Amino acid sequence: MIEDFRSIPKVELHLHLDGSIPLNLLSNYLNRDAKEVATAQDKCQNLADYLTKFDLPIEFLKHKDNLKLAAYELSKDLEQDGVIYAEVRFAPNLLVSNELTLNDTVKTILEGFSLGNVKINLILCMMRHHSFAENYEVIDIASQYLHKGVCAIDLAGDEEHFPTSNFKELFAIAKEKNIPFTIHAGEVNLKDSLENAINFGATRLGHGIQAVNYADLLQDIINKKILLEVCPTSNIQTNVIDTYEHHPIKQLDEKGVLISISTDNRTVSNITLSSEYAKLNKYFNYNIKDFCRFNYNAINSSFLSNEEKQELTDIILEYMKKSIN
Ligand SMILES: [Zn+2]
């Protein structure tokens, strides 16, 4: 079954490099099986607990050669998974080391991607626990690389302890500099977080699933055609949703919210996008036609030019013509 889903041309918009380093690279680095240190349990206590799984990957990526290799190997994994376009994110400030300046982190990853066959752009993450100055640096580097391998910025990290409202000024600056953005918001159930992200002008929300609990915000999301980057397995693991069957994806979809599907973290969650499609098929009966629709949504809300969007749309349409009669 997964084999069938692998052939669907996919667009993945929400994917962290540090959570998606092929496991064999981490095992080689540790000189032992890295599975236990780098993959999450089916159910973590909370988001903060889940985030501890990034300690080893971040240490690994602070070395220049590893960073380039990880980017290249991830692009090969994406190709294997049928991904035709991805927006991969990472937090530059977490990788600065004696081997890598902020600028090097972006440059090195882009070099790694360029060795592969998949079209990939970078989203640079500001971190909730970082200072204003550190996050400003991220905006600055994004503006230097905009349309040259970087397509947007994001805000990631512990949503519960570092409220979205703290970042109003930074997103205003990004807007002024014409840097597109997505925001991790509504992963945990905080109305305020979603409200702020929408008011800042985010055209996409990382997760955003908790909007299902607030009719007014839901209407706003629908009216403004804001896309949700939905990552179901991740939501179960971080324990913001109790079971896969209870995930609100179908409710949101049926209400008319624009949905796209991503893995969030391929290695930490031990999944591929194809395996996620298989699960969505099993629990919610979504079929190839639905997945093409979600990918179409993803293309439309990607940070690509209209011309690039059209090229990807043509690939999906061609696939649908061949596979759905
Ligand atoms: Zn994420």
What's the arrangement of strands in the largest beta sheet? 1-2-3-4
How far is the N terminus from the C terminus? 19 Å
What's the structural domain tally?
1
DSSP summary: helix tally: 17
Q: Descriptors for this entry?
A:
325 residues; alpha/beta; TIM Barrel; 4-stranded parallel sheet; 8 strands; binds zinc ion
Structure write-up:
This protein has 325 residues and is an alpha/beta fold. The protein has a single domain (2-318), classed as Metal-dependent hydrolases (TIM Barrel), CATH 3.20.20.140. 50% of the residues lie in helices and 14% in strands. The chain contains 17 helices and eight strands. The protein has helices at 2-6, 23-30, 35-38, 47-51, 55-61, 64-80, 92-95, 102-114, 132-145, 168-176, 191-200, 215-223, 232-237, 249-255, 273-284, 288-301, 306-323, and strands at 10-16, 83-90, 119-127, 150-156, 182-185, 204-207, 227-230, 258-261. Strands 1-2-3-4 form a four-stranded parallel sheet. α16 (288-301) runs antiparallel to α17 (306-323). The radius of gyration is 18 Å and the shape is globular. The two termini are 19 Å apart. The mean pLDDT is 96. Zinc ion is lined by residues 14, 16, 156, 184, 206, 264. The site of zinc ion has 6 residues, from β1.
